[in-house]
Amino acid sequence: MVKIEQVVGIRVITLDEVDSTNEYAKSIVREVPEGTVVVAKRQTAGRGRKGRSWTSPEGGLWLSVILKPPKVDPRLVFVGALAVVDTLADFGIASGIKWPNDVWAGGKKIAGVLTEGKVGEYTILGVGLNVNNPIPEELRETATAMVNFTGVKLPLERVLERLLFHLDGWYRVLKERPEIMMAKVRERTFILGRVVRVVEDDDVLIGRAVDVLDDGSLLLDIGGQLRRVLYGDVSLRFF
Ligand code: ATP
Ligand code: BTN
């Protein structure tokens, strides 16, 4: 029998409060092995992409995984997104990926993934998943939490355990069979077939999302012309 070595979650550092688990993870990256996870009960300065703030009160899962892949791979964001989708399914919640870094359930955002890295050194895979935490009034139109589907609070430890299990699994699949991971991303990306608006620097593109390519980019059909959109500082809305 082949023994599979666990990577994600071999060490878990639990904090009561931190500014951002991604920042904390960066500060210890050289002292800890790959797969170390930093999880905090609450973040005082949780961040989304483009420096947007990420609301992180007690009751949610706010964590960062320290990865040391041989080279920076933009597809690492999908390891986080797929692991969240699988974790939600374990608790009976159907969800899908809003390419590239969000997970949506019941028409609202339930989780976000933020990858940050230094070429040749590390990638921090940050995952924020709303579990039992209250959603602030101003986000209620667009955001939701697991408890809104289950009606009862979930054991956070159990959700964490499932999430780490799936993160570890998808990280392995990315390293060994990336095409299998990308096939699953395609299957889970709910914006495919829909009209989307992508803002890329100063460029605004409106077209139909037709595919996620093996390199992780999104293929848009703009009036019959195909255009690839790379994962980066893009903003996407769907209709
Ligand atoms: P895009 O990047 O395509 O514009 P987005 O609006 O989801 O999509 P992100 O940078 O991915 O933007 O996510 C950050 C946004 O998520 C914040 O601006 C805020 O609106 C929202 N947000 C903040 N905290 C939470 C939370 N706990 N749950 C859900 N959404 C949140
Ligand atoms: C997004 O949707 O833009 C990504 C949100 C990522 C939030 C997580 S919570 C844990 C980690 N620490 C942070 O400051 N951000 C990520």
From TrEMBL:
GO MF, one example: biotin--[biotin carboxyl-carrier protein] ligase activity
One of the Pfam families matching this protein, by short name: BPL_LplA_LipB
Segments forming domain BPL/LPL catalytic: 1-175
Gene Ontology terms: cellular component: cytoplasm
Keyword annotations of the record: ATP-binding, Ligase, Nucleotide-binding
Domain of life, per lineage: Archaea
The name this protein goes by in its record: Biotin--[acetyl-CoA-carboxylase] ligase
Source organism per UniProt: Thermococcus thioreducens
Lineage: Archaea, Methanobacteriati, Methanobacteriota, Thermococci, Thermococcales
